[in-house]
Structures are given as structure tokens and as C-alpha cells.
Protein 1
Amino acid sequence: MGKVPPGFARWKGPGRSPRRAERRDSEAGAFPTGHARRDEPQDVPPEDRGCSLQRTGRVVDAAGALSTLRRELSWGALVVLLAFAALPWGPDAGSPVAMRCSRAVIVGGALRCDADAPVDVAGLCGPGHPEASRAIYGGDVVDPVALCTRGATAGLTRMAPEDLAALAQPTDVNAADGDELDGLPGIGPALAARVIEARPFADVDDLVRVRGIGPVTVERLRPRVVARPSPPP
């Protein structure tokens, strides 16, 4: 009997094919040449451990790196949470709801309150402006350049309904547009249209003339509305 080739040490003669013998050896716990058992001692030289152990080593290294990454991410998340906790979560100084004042006007993007807020066009454009006597009310938004060069139609608008509510600025039922009226409590688009049709109103109580607005609705509206005299044509 000749020399047995490597990998076929258990092939003892006819009747056992090399492949069948190798499969039986594998089932019995023997590993083909070039493969190592998972429980092989770690002090075996790498060249004797085979490719499986080399792959296992890479998995161990990857697991260690993943564990380190998780620890670093945990610390990073903690730092981010602490940074967010330190942020000022209240409204900033540039927000129209940053403070409360009796009379609030936004001029050039900045909120002005009470004595700092202009009362008329002359205060911004000078007494020689054609609309110098036109009043500027709480809740107005002023573009000074447009106001002084093209007039109140281009330079005067109103705050958004939510900003008017946050700053407690009144709505003039004799001058407000449909969107501003629609933002009032108990007033929807249909009632807003009826309010516009029923103008002018002598006072807030006069709103009961509008179909759909009764005494209860008037009381809800009272803190939020005024009825200024309509400007002359």
C-alpha cells in the first residue's frame, strides 16, 4: 500500500471513498487540513490555526472596536444632551413674542414697546411726509424705507394673528382684514366676512349687529378687539 496523500489519513482501503471518509471524519469531529476548531488553544501559531481562526480574530477585533464606539457614542450623546439643556428655550430677543408690552410695534424687524414704539408716520419719516399724521397702532409692522418712500399702503402691515394674541395687541374691527378677524376667538371665515360687511361699528358692543355674534361671543372678543373711528376718506 502506497503513501496516503494529505487529508486522507483515515482512508484505509477499498470501499471508503476519499470524499465519504472526509465527510465522516468531519461528522466525527475531525477537521480537514487548513481548518481549526473553535476551542483550539490561543497559543497555537497563526499559521497553524487556519483561516477560521483568522476570521475569528477579526470578529473579536471588530467586537472590541464596536464596544469602544458605543462608549464614545454614549459620552457624545450625553454631551449633546447637556448642550441642549443649557440652551435658552424661551423666545429670543428677535422674536415678536420675546416680551410683553402694552403697545407693541415691529419696526424694521425689531420689536419696539410702549414709549419706544412710534405713534405716527411723522415719528419715522419726519413732519414733511404726506401721511405724517397717520397713526401707527399696536400690532403694526413697519417697513421704514417703504413707508417713507412709497407711503403707508406699502410700508404698514399687521402682525400675524398668533403674534397679536401672544403680545395681547388689539384688533380694530373697523379696519382689520379677513385673516386678522379670522384669528379672533369664535370668529371663522364666514363671520369675518359678515363683520367686514357690517362696518363701521360704534363700539365693541355694536358687534351684536352681526348675525352669528351674540353677547357671549362679544364678551369673548372684548379683551382682543377695539372699534376705532374710521379714518376720513
Protein 2
Amino acid sequence: MALSSVLRISSRSSYLSPVSVGMQGIRKWVVDHPVASSAVGGVVAGPALLVAVPWALGFGGAGIVAGSYATGWMSSVAVANGGGVATTSMVAMMQSVGAAGFATSTYAGAAAATSAASAGAAKAAQGATRWVKSKL
């Protein structure tokens, strides 16, 4: 069977229609409920950032990644401290987080904080929009 006929068959297939209907429903709900949808986004974004930031800096599960920002940071801290890195330093904490992660309660706190912050920002934007519209 030729690729063009496979593409025609799959494009006529209705198995994707529930997905597109679902996405339209989600999109409508987000537009109709900006504050609640911002809160939901915050619940997802907070814990994701807790994982992504140390990883992006170069603090991995097996230690500091060679050639990353973390290597330069650790080197400068070691030079400033006479050759060692203090266990209470930010580098040591980030290395620990990169290797072991945070406690579940920390992820829950981050989810709550980012949810509240994003919902508050959405509510403020909603109020500002209403105020501007009232002045027009």
C-alpha cells in the first residue's frame, strides 16, 4: 500500500475526533474560567520547575554534569573557600536536590504557592481589564 493511500485512510479515520472535541472543550473552559485555569497551571508548573531548574543548571542524579554551569559555580565556590565546598552552601544544597530530589511536602508546597500566585495574577489581570473597559 502506498504512503499516500495510508495518509488518506488515517486522515479519514474518526479515532482522533474525540481528542479534538476534548481539546475544544478544554480550550472553552480555560477561556471561560481564567482564574481557575491559572491555578491549575500553577499546580503543574511549580513542581515541574523544582525539578527542571537544578537539572538545567547541571545538577544531575549522578552528580554535577561536566561542562555545565554547575561545574563553574562549584569551582568558584571551592576557590573562594580555600579548596572546599561548605555543606551549607547553595551549591551543596543544589547538588543534593539534583541527586535525591525534594521531599513530597516540598513539591506540594510549590504546587500550592505557584497555584495561588498564578490565580492571583489572573484575578488581578481580570480586574485591570474590567477597569480599563470601564474607562473606554
Protein 3
Amino acid sequence: MRGIFCFSFLGLALAMAGCATHDNFPQPPPNAPAPAASAANDKRITTNPSFDAVARVLSVSESPGLEGFLKVEFQIQNTTQSVQSVGYRINWTDRNGAPVDIASPVPPMTLMPGETAPVVALAPSPVATDFRASFFRVNR
């Protein structure tokens, strides 16, 4: 009987220890870039209805790139159950909103069903301090 009591007590102690709360969530390093922001309310990002029917821009983040060049990263998700081709164009502007460089064409990217993929763009000059991004569906 004493052995059953000891095992019951041991089991109860282990169960209680498992219920304890701990703050084990990793903390970001002090100089880490800001987390990606939702792209839904970012006025610098535009899409058209054909893009919206097959994909969405989940997030956008900005960080300093090499030698002061602005680096922008978007997360794009195919929201369908079929392969989709999408394209994008980035227009870079200076601190006054003036165009810095003419946007060059970018080959379309293929997204598998449900796939989320990054789009990374690096400003053509350190003078470029902001951007406008347009996303569109590419007809096959």
C-alpha cells in the first residue's frame, strides 16, 4: 500500500510540474530588424483584381542592405489549389518622392498551390529611400 501511495504522489508531483508556467519564449537580439508588417494597409503596395483572385501579399519588411541600399522583402502566397504565375514591379523614390530609377521588368515567378515565397528587392542607389510595388497575375 505504501508503494502505491509513493507512486501516486510521484505521479501527482510530475503532473503539477508540467503545469507550471515558464517564460521560455526566445527574445529577439537587440539589433534585430523590425518584424515584417502586414501588407494589407500599406499604401505603397498595389495589386489588381486578377492578382487578388489567386494570391496575396502577406507581409513586407524593410532593412538596410549593402552599403546603405534599401532592401525590401515581401512574402507572397498562392491562395489557390493550382499553379499560378505572378509578376511585380518596384518603383524606387528618393526622400522627396521623386523617381530614382525606371523600373526594370522582372521575370514572372511561379507559385505552386498554397506556396508562400519571398520577393526580395534591393534599391538601385542609396538615394532611393522608399518604394512603390505593384503585383499582378501573369496570364499563361
